[in-house]
Amino acid sequence: MFTKQYKNLKRSLKKTDRAIIGIGCSFMQGQGAIDEELERLDGWVIEQGRMVLDVSLEKKKELAIKHDLPMTETMTEANDLEVDLGVSEQEYKNSFLNVLCDDLLEGSWTPINFGMRGNGNRASIKQLYYHPELELEKVKEKIVIYCPSGVERFDFALPKLSDHFGFVTMWPHYKSVSEKNRKMLWEGYAKTIWSDYHEVIEQLFNAAELVTWCKLNNAKLVVFPGFDTRYNKKYFFDILFAESSKFNNVRLPHKMNLIIENFPWKDVITVDKCDTVIDVLQKKIRGKVDRRNWNYWDYLGKGSPDGLITRCAHPSKSGHRYFAGKLHEELLKRGILNVG
């Protein structure tokens, strides 16, 4: 989220006194969910898993005017349309959270999208503290929709201030990273910190912090992963039990069982009988969910034929709209949404 978004959000909150707060990574932000006319342009290339438009400076200015995108004063020939033309703002607008609140709920709830490309779960949850200007504690009704990212991601605060993404995220793979210092950082994480146990225990501590925030601020919680299917009690138990069984201490397995309950399992939902956002779209595309023979990354660089998945292998604008409809149905069915 950008600070320039605060003004409109505060105005909306004053009117609705209700907020649906989205936290997560690119699946929450709406990465790739740009308007269809813009997406059809020639010149899109994939760089580090996201779409950038490799066009001239003149073409960028033309697009900015035509698509009502904000131009920066430092616009250059570099092929980063997101930075130059504020495409992130268009992604936020077309995300399922905005569709849910602005269209399906007819503006009766304010969408607050804290999702950001590249987020791990530690950074996602910290966003709840990073925007005190919004005074969320004063909002009468709140729902937090948490779309957990990959369990392998780990993030920490940037060494300097940023108006948007204030964290550094690492993955436990580094051999394909070209920038020297970044590669060294990732390699250190992969070799000295990361393990299956580290992944799971971090998520349990993150979840405990999220649950505490929701209780303190009287917010309902909904948990629905973007793409990672490992957010289930069996997987967490298997990892922690395997680690605790290495020690000759009968108390450790019991301790791990108690820690597992830090995760808000009662708030984990399914949508259209699916476990993740991408599975909902796979079911729409193929009529069933089968991760063994299908991966959304298969569409990287080309997108799905029906347009539900973008060339950056994320839900498109139409994909977000479809998912929003399914999520809306589920929230109503569970009584989570009060539309009165």
Looking at this protein, list some descriptive labels:
two-stranded antiparallel ribbon, Rossmann fold, 8 strands, alpha/beta, globular, 14 helices, 340 residues, four-stranded parallel sheet
**Spatial gap, N to C terminus:** 29 Å
User: Uncertain runs with pLDDT below 50, 5 residues or more?
Assistant: 79-85
Q: What topology, given as strand order, has the largest sheet?
A: 4-1-5-8
Q: What share of the residues does DSSP label as strand, in percent? A: 5-15%
Topology as a string of helices (H) and strands (E): HEHHEEHHHHEHEEEHHEHHHH
Overall form: globular
Structural class by helix and strand composition: alpha/beta
Number of helices: 14
Average of the residue pLDDT scores? 90
CATH class of the domain at 3-33 and 95-286: Alpha Beta
Alpha-carbon Rg, integer: 20 Å
Characterization of the model:
- This protein has 340 residues and is an alpha/beta fold.
- It has a domain at 3-33 and 95-286: Rossmann fold (3-Layer(aba) Sandwich), CATH 3.40.50.
- Helix content is 41%, strand content 11%.
- The chain is built from 14 helices and eight strands.
- The protein is globular and about 70 Å long.
- Mean pLDDT is 90; it is low at 79-85.
Summarize the structure.
The chain is 41% helix and 11% strand. The protein is an alpha/beta fold.
Q: What is the topology?
A:
Blueprint: H1 6-16, E1 18-24, H2 26-29, H3 36-39, E2 44-47, E3 50-53, H4 57-66, H5 81-85, H6 87-94, H7 96-104, E4 110-113, H8 121-126, E5 141-147, E6 154-157, E7 167-170, H9 180-192, H10 196-216, E8 219-223, H11 233-244, H12 251-260, H13 277-286, H14 317-333
Parallel strand pairs: 1-4, 1-5, 5-8
Antiparallel strand pairs: 2-3, 6-7
Helix pairs in contact: 7-14, 10-11, 11-12
